[in-house]
């Protein structure tokens, strides 16, 4: 299995209403120092709408300006529709205390 395939597998495990960080996905995919590569993998998501790449955020809860499927505004709307909790609406940041996914491996 390639690293990208492992990333897609891990991201597919994140339940609706939860998020994971790029670093968390990198660790779960087997390469803890590859959080940027996780971003590259998600940018080339072969199955948008199936692999929920919108559920991956920065470690401080920030959204990605480079979200491949409509920018941070689209990512914000998708996460909000799933019930993800945000700290404020001016510069939306995910409340990582309530919305971060905790897999048994992380």
List the helices and strands and how they pair.
Layout: H1 3-12, E1 20-21, H2 22-28, H3 35-43, E2 56-57, H4 71-81, H5 96-99
Parallel strand pairs: 1-2
Helix pairs in contact: 2-3
Series of secondary-structure elements, N-terminal to C-terminal = HEHHEHH
Radius of gyration over all CA atoms, rounded: 12 Å
Question: Oligomerization state of this entry?
Answer: single chain
Which class best fits the helix and strand makeup? mainly alpha
Question: What count of helical segments does DSSP give?
Answer: 5
If you had to describe this structure to a student in words, what would you say it looks like?
The protein is mostly helical and 106 residues long. Helix content is 39%, strand content 4%. It is built from five helices and two strands. Helix 2 packs across helix 3. The longest helix is centred in the C-terminal third of the chain and has 11 residues, at 71-81. It starts with a helix and ends in a 7-residue tail after the last helix.
